[in-house]
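Standup notes
- HV: blocked on the assembly model, inputs below
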Amino acid sequence: MKELLELKGITAGYEQTVVLRDVNLAIHAHDFIGIIGPNGGGKTTLLKVILGLLKPFSGEIVYHVSKQSLFGYLPQNSRFDARFPISVKEVVLSGLMSEKGIFKAYTKVDRKRVEEILEVYGMSDYKNRPIGELSGGQMQRVFLCRAIISSPKILILDEPSTYVDANFEMEFYSLLKELNEKMSIVMVSHDLGTICSYVKTIACVNGGLHYHESNLITPEQLKLYNCPIELISHGTVPHRVLLEHDETIENKRIQ
Amino acid sequence: MFELLEYTFFQNALLCTILIGVSCGLIGTYIVAKRMVFISGGITHASFGGLGLAYFLGLSPLFGAAVFALAAAFCILYLSDSKRFKEDSLIGIFWSAGMAIGVLFIYLTPGYAPNLLSYLFGNILTVTGEQVALSLVLCLVIVLFFAKFYRPLFYIAFDKEYSRTHFVALNGLEIGVTALIALCIVLCMKLAGIILVISYLTMPQAIAGMFHKNFTKQLVWSTIVSCGGSIIGLFASAALKLPSGATIVLCFLAIFLICYFWKKKK
């Protein structure tokens, strides 16, 4: 499949601390990569490197496609000022910045796209509200709209399970499946159940990165790569369950 | 009162007040939205150092102030971005060091400094035709800059990290707006003086913010309030023979209180 982006021998971290060492990862079209690993293992650092937010100490990022509308990004906690004077509509419109750069004007067609996407995600009634007046779940829905309005080539999600509420969870993941037909998805998650039922491949990040060509985690893999599965599942999820874990069981659990 | 309009000095003052009103309305909205009020205070006071130095060297005080304001603005933003210093400490350093340099050079300059008070508290009635022309140029640049870039500008201010994932040229835009903030502050010093500048950049915005929670509307309404309040204040100061800068600030305060209680009653 077509390769979009490639990390080659990336070593990255903050100031003097190395968090990721010699990481290689390729993202292809229609990938759905789940990123797992313990806290402090470098999951968010990896996302930041992919997104170009953090300059690695060494190694390179090769872009095989144009950078325009390359990324849609849904951060874990959007750290923003809740009293910033910006409406829901404008937040979603800002998702087109990559297309527009700083010089091109935003047109009626763009605003129409915003209205449409807000309609799809059930946020139409809130379009004129200041973003700070929404609830946490509503905000994340708006930020999801912002992330996908430009139909990015790669959608990057950082811990969606922490902000997706129970009512929206099923809907959210089936939606991701739909989006995955159009774009690649890279998702960091603590929720092992989710990872196994939705993603196609898994990357374990704990200082280094180990890539699994399937969404099944076998005990052999765990042993071989010393993957921190137990840490993130609090050590109570036996492996057999994971192998049997399919979508219907997952959905029942949520209901 | 309106016979004042026949005098050139008052025409100049009125025109300059409107130009400053528009500039501060726009720049102030950005400053308030991005919570840069304290930074702006630091830039304002740092510029006093340039003013004093220029005075000592026999140069134009406003030129000296502009150089120091620009330098302080870029230093504060660059150094606080690099995370080596805390932003508020940096502001404190620039704030007081600028004032100290200013005081020192004015002390060292032989003779009495007659215009000093007008730089601290502003006196729009002494504005020259040349200064009006400069204000016009700067005001036009600010209006055009905001007309062209207000969306990316506010989008980046809202969520810089997200903007960076879109690979937009945000550094250029931030350099531009930082320079305009510094120059707008210096321009405003003629009207309000170093001590009162901050109110021009925050009070109209606070009033507009009571009614509108969207930056597009805040930009428009801050500008209207800023212009309107300054013009009323200027006429009031002339009629009552009061200092213009302080009268305009109190005029903003009056508008603020009226709006506050009117809104509360509703």
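- HV (later): unblocked. Chain B has ten helices and no strands. Chain B touches chain A through 30 residues (CB under 8 Å).
- Next: hand off to the docking folks.
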